Amino acid sequence: MTTSRVKPVSAGAMLTLLLLLAIAVRAEQTAPLSIAKIGNIYAGGKYTEVKGKKVMSGQVYAEFLIPAKQTSPYPVVMVHGGGVTGSLYMQTPDGRETR
């Protein structure tokens, strides 16, 4: 007769697994985000002359989405970097459709 031994799981691994499960369950129960207002703005910048042409530089472009139901008095500000653009916040990493 052979017996197999099951290795015990550490408390940290079990806690991580339970946390991931809770997040997955919560994600399934969450309704889609309803947007009240969406827009964009340019701020700052100045015109300089480059090779006889006026060129705008030093400006910043920002997009905003305001949820219909605000649950916090503070905004979430996401700043991109590392050679990518802010458009990465408007999609999922694997390109799938969101709800």
Describe the structure.
Strands 1-2 form a two-stranded antiparallel sheet. It has 99 residues and is an alpha+beta fold. The protein has one helix at 11-29, and strands at residues 35-50, 53-67. The mean pLDDT is 80. A hairpin with a 2-residue loop joins strand 1 and strand 2. The protein has a domain at 32-90. It has one helix and two strands, in the order αββ.
- Name the helicity range: 10-25%
What is the CA-CA span between the terminal residues?
A: 53 Å
Which parts are unreliable, with pLDDT below 50 for 5 consecutive residues or more?
none
> What's the shape?
elongated
Radius of gyration: 24 Å
**Looking across the biggest beta sheet, what order are the strands in?**
1-2
Average pLDDT level: 80
The run of helices and strands is HEE
- Give a count of the beta strands, DSSP E runs of length 2 or more: 2
Strand content: 25-35%
Largest sheet composition: 2 strands, antiparallel
Number of helices: 1
Overall structural class, as computed from helix and strand content, comes to: alpha+beta
What's a concise summary of this model?
The protein has a domain of 59 residues. Helix content is 19%, strand content 31%.
Key descriptive features of the protein:
99 residues; alpha+beta; two-stranded antiparallel ribbon; elongated
Give the arrangement of secondary structure elements.
Elements: H1 11-29, E1 35-50, E2 53-67
Antiparallel strand pairs: 1-2
